[in-house]
Amino acid sequence: MNMARKNAAVAAGGKSGKKGRQARSRKIAAREEVPQLNPDTSDQALAALLNRLKAAVDLAEIRQLSGQIERVVFHKQFTNA
Fold first, then answer.
1. Residue 81 in contact with residue 61, Cβ under 8 Å?
2. Residue 41 and residue 24: Cα distance in Å, rounded?
3. How far is CA 2 from its chain centroid?
4. How far apart are CA 38 and CA 49, in angstroms?
5. pLDDT 10s digits, 62-75
6. DSSP string, 36-78
7. Cα–Cα distance, 28 to 62 (Å, whole number)
8. What is the pLDDT of residue 27?
9. What does the mean pLDDT of the chain come to?
């Protein structure tokens, strides 16, 4: 393989890696944003958690969200009893 061609490929790959890393970090940061909800609006909180659960791909995040959903549902049942 031509050495000049190899060096050009390495240089181009380094630039795209930096761009990809920044795009990935923005995507992850946007996914990790927690919506600020009023605590007395459990219907809205439940809807937001269910939407986040639909978009979740990480198993740990799914477990965390399902635990939060259980707490919201329990709170709704407790206050309505």
1. no
2. 33
3. 43
4. 13
5. 999 999 989 888 87
6. ---TT-HHHHHHHHHHHHHH--SHHHHHHHHHHHHHHHHHHHH
7. 15
8. 72
9. 75
Burial (0-12, 13-18, 19+ Cβ within 10 Å), 45: buried
Element (H, E) at 81: none
Place of tokens 């909800």: 37
Structure tokens at 44: 């809205």
Q: Map residue 7 onto helix, strand or coil.
A: helix
42 vs 49: CA distance, rounded Å:
10
Q: How many residues does the chain have?
A: 81
pLDDT tens sequence across 7-40:
776 666 655 555 667 777 777 766 666 555 555 5
What are the Cα distances from residue 12, in Å, to 1, 15, 16, 40, 49?
A: 17, 5, 7, 53, 41
